TrEMBL record, chains A, B:
It comes from the Bacteria. GO terms for molecular function: acyltransferase activity, acyl groups converted into alkyl on transfer. It comes from Hydrogenobacter thermophilus (strain DSM 6534 / IAM 12695 / TK-6). Belongs to the alpha-IPM synthase/homocitrate synthase family. This is Homocitrate synthase. Residues 3-252 form the Pyruvate carboxyltransferase domain. Pfam families: HCS_D2 (PF22617), HMGL-like (PF00682). SUPFAM superfamilies: Aldolase.
Length: 325, 325
């Protein structure tokens, strides 16, 4: 079993209120991430500006150019800006909930269908790989989603991206939605973390048939961000034994380098990366750890180049005693 | 449908490497949390020390004394220390994975069964409410878990606590495990966050039949912590429309007060609580938000006394324009 990880640190990550990176840093990060063996990188929005297109052209022509995918609104102008960059893969996003269609676009369902029927054949006529992103699919009418899945498959889209735009999906809903969608075409998932469920929804999606998981370093993105790349990769590889094609030790180094590069603030208990991620404190845990690391750790942190630690305080007489030895 | 939230900030939270609270602060927090309408608070470990017992006695005699539950290892000495505190509810924890039974206790499965058959009737003879915690249930043999569920039901335990001690369970496994366990007796879940899946596993557990969710403020606990109280409560109440008995606005105030009290470090994108939790930055999101708050927010943050915000940077010309107006 194989899963493909698609990184969006360079696009969605830039929407984090805490992060701004220069184009030079974005290029550096592109090559660092490529070196982990990651499948694909969503690097930006060609329609955004001339400068953005120059940067994308540079990446598209590089040795890892075939990993580049770019983001577009569902309109011909955006697609043309992408074509100008000579990329091989396109992502097109379109709102699919009635709420978004009405409140944001002031349109109706028929408009969405017409737009897709116009734009998909256009992209495919250019011999590009196309992922169609269903924005706000979690709040969308299920029958309409099925109608759209049929439509985009018929028009020749290569995959669908299910976006939980405001992070309200729970894993059982994810399971159902992904099972349905993957009976139509390849599924990618993009989950927001407004309630802290993005990683679990991504893992559930994979177990329910999704082939692609979209994520970003440390989960950076709008508001509470999205699925943290390192969490899904480490879980899939170290716990589920699923092949992601990514070198976890290299990824761990890059995450840590990225933290230094950006000076980003992390909680000490951030999974895998926070300074306390592998630190146990209670006597009972410490007692167990002296017998075997695996008692109170999900895996040996040395696998990724980190190490287990002990902390001291209330409930940790055992640690205190050990230290006095 | 009703769910019961059991807080363990005052016990498990104390095992966070980043936190130490005095007994005075723990008392203050007990009354603050009680005032939200929370069902139960796991306040400490009576066997730990004389000082710990004095503090627990004080809480047990207070007006919210019926919300108090205390943690014990599965041995008579621990239970006697709890009895001394005049509490009405007990939690007893016992390892159930072969790995823990062997590596930590150097015992076998029969020993676990014998211990439970000795201790449960003893506790029940004292007319106490008893929750039996299955430590490391996620790595345990399923048939043995079923045998133990039968055993503790027969001996009169009031509920079982399923503990994902090293945070390796995924939501589909949670779904299966909780469905099985809740066919035997009331289920409580206690999930660690080593891969960032504690909240989603807790929500899944509830949807699969669990009646009790154990959590702590900001998810404080050993290593990466456990299920964050505010995440499960807000999701259940604001998105699922499930009654938790908790006043979410009051809870939000208390979480913020707790952050000030402890000076704890949070990531800016911490769900619900981080300074960017309700901050959108990209033009497309900001454009949507000017039409309706719900386009790019899971709920109106004013419900909990917070508010939506905008940030500026790459991809946010729209925000810049709005500000110039």
């Amino acid at each position: 079993m194989r899963v493909f990880i698609t990184d969006t640190t360079l696009r969605k990550g830039m929407q984090s209120a805490s992060l701004e990176l220069t184009y030079e840093k974005r290029k550096e990060l592109f090559f660092l991430l490529s070196s982990t063996g990651i499948h694909e990188l969503e690097v930006g929005v060609p329609a955004h500006s001339e400068e953005e297109r120059d940067y994308i052209k540079y990446l598209a022509r590089s040795q890892h150019g075939d990993k580049v995918i770019v983001w577009n609104r569902a309109n011909i102008r955006d697609v043309e800006a992408s074509l100008e960059c000579s990329v091989k893969k396109l992502e097109i996003a379109i709102p699919v909930s009635d709420f978004m269609i009405k409140e944001k676009l002031n349109k109706d369902r028929d408009y969405i269908v017409r737009l897709l029927k116009e734009i998909i054949p256009y992209v495919k006529s250019k011999k590009l790989y196309l992922s169609v992103g269903f924005e706000d699919v979690s709040r969308a009418d299920r029958e309409f989603v099925i109608k759209l899945l049929e439509c985009i498959r018929e028009e020749g889209a290569d995959r669908v991206r299910l976006s939980d735009t405001v992070g309200v999906l729970n894993p059982l809903q994810t399971n159902e939605l992904v099972k349905t969608a993957s009976s139509f075409l390849d599924v990618e998932v993009h989950f927001h973390n407004d309630f802290g469920m993005a990683t679990a929804n991504s893992i559930t999606a994979f177990l329910s048939g999704a082939k692609y998981i979209n994520a970003s370093l440390l989960g950076l993105g709008e508001r509470c961000g999205i699925t943290p790349l390192e969490e899904v990769v480490f879980y899939l590889q170290l716990i589920q034994g699923v092949h992601t094609g990514i070198n976890v030790k290299r990824l761990y180094e890059i995450v840590n380098y990225f933290i230094d590069m950006t000076n980003i603030h992390l909680a000490p208990n951030k999974p895998l990366i926070g300074k306390n991620a592998f630190t146990n404190k209670s006597s009972i845990h410490i007692d167990g750890l002296t017998k075997s690391k695996r008692t109170y750790l999900p895996f040996d942190p040395e696998v990724v180049g980190s190490k287990a630690a002990l902390a001291f305080g209330l409930y940790s007489e055992k640690a205190n005693k050990l230290c006095k030895k």
